[in-house]
Write a structure and sequence with these properties.
Elements (H helix, E strand, L loop, with lengths): L10 E2 L4 E2 L4 E2 L4 E2 L4 E2 L4 E2 L4 E2 L2 E4 L4 E2 L4 E4 L12 E4 L4 E2 L4 E3 L7 E4 L4 E2 L4 E2 L4 E2 L4 E2 L4 E2 L4 E2 L4 E2 L4 E2 L4 E2 L4 E2 L4 E2 L7 E5 L2 E6 L1 H6 L9 H14 L5 H7 L7 H15 L21
Parallel strand pairs: 1-4, 2-5, 3-6, 4-7, 5-8, 6-9, 7-10, 8-11, 9-12, 10-13, 11-14, 12-15, 13-16, 14-17, 15-18, 16-19, 17-20, 18-21, 19-22, 20-23, 21-24, 22-25, 24-26
Antiparallel strand pairs: 26-27
Helix pairs in contact: 2-3, 2-4
Length: about 280
């Protein structure tokens, strides 16, 4: 460990494993079972504890708390893990809790931005290239797919699944799954349309609206605008199963309506919550 990169007021357990290039700021506390990879910068007053692993090129800003016990009354002290990938920005006072049980991990992937005061509860899975804005609160067992954008002061209910390239507007209450590629906001939350801007920025909706995107728009209209039941609409999408966008959209909605641990899909303005259920 290169001592010039560690502030003398930092408290680092002798059992912790830090790459020599890791920087640790004043009054940070790093526990016994923590592993931190190359070129990661730990800010002042950060606390990292538990069986927690951080990869390379992460930056953790002052006051963040990672790997502490879950806020779950069922937690019995089991050894559980937090895994954080590479190139993440974890801003001021973000909290990331370890899981309740040892059969799963709380995981944050790569290239994510978690803004100040965001909370990632126990058993959450966040994939890659996600943005959580200020004071987003994810309850336990939430799964956020890659490229999702969640605006400030959003509350997400436990066991909710948020799809790829979804956009959630600020101050929304999210108590059902958010389908991929959609825009959602409100209290109660409603699907407002496709996230066209996000898809364009990702190169998935070009100026000429290629066939894959046109079919995704048709799939969205069938599910959310046609008045058909969800099961009937999804059956009509089968001929487009070779379109990866439509396939992911359809599979997400099927899982949301059929799997017992899922909460059903967020409805739209023109579809009642009951009609989003599978027949």
């Amino acid at each position: 460990m290169t001592t010039t990169l560690i502030h003398p007021t930092a408290v680092i357990h002798s059992g912790a494993s830090l790459h020599p290039s890791v920087k640790v700021g004043p009054y940070a506390v790093i526990g016994e079972h923590v592993t931190i990879g190359p070129n990661t910068d730990i800010g002042a007053h950060v606390v990292i504890d538990g069986h927690t692993t951080l990869g390379a090129h992460n930056r953790v800003y002052p006051g963040a708390a990672i790997g502490l016990e879950p806020q779950d009354l069922k937690y019995d002290g089991a050894i559980t893990q937090v895994e954080i990938g590479d190139h993440n920005l974890i801003r001021e006072y973000v909290t990331i809790n370890r899981p309740t049980t040892p059969d799963v991990v709380t995981r944050l992937g790569n290239h994510n931005l978690l803004m100040a005061y965001a909370h990632v509860a126990h058993n959450c899975i966040l994939e890659d290239q996600i943005v959580l804005a200020n004071s987003v609160a994810l309850a336990g067992h939430v799964h956020v797919e890659s490229w999702a954008r969640i605006s400030g002061l959003v509350g997400v209910h436990q066991f909710v699944h948020i799809g790829r390239y979804a956009y959630i507007g600020g101050l929304s209450r999210i108590d059902r799954d958010v389908p991929p590629f959609t825009m959602v906001n409100g209290n109660p939350a409603l699907v407002r349309g496709l996230n066209q801007v996000g898809l364009q920025r990702a190169g998935l909706a070009d100026q000429n609206e290629g066939q894959d995107y046109r079919q995704l728009k048709q799939a969205y209209r069938l599910v959310y605008r046609s008045g058909a039941s969800l099961a009937s609409a999804l059956d009509k999408l089968e001929p487009w199963s070779d379109n990866e966008l439509v396939r992911h959209f359809s599979q997400f909605l099927k899982a949301s309506s059929q799997q017992p641990d899922r909460r059903g899909a967020t409805p739209s303005r023109k579809r009642s919550s009951r009609s989003t259920e599978a027949d």
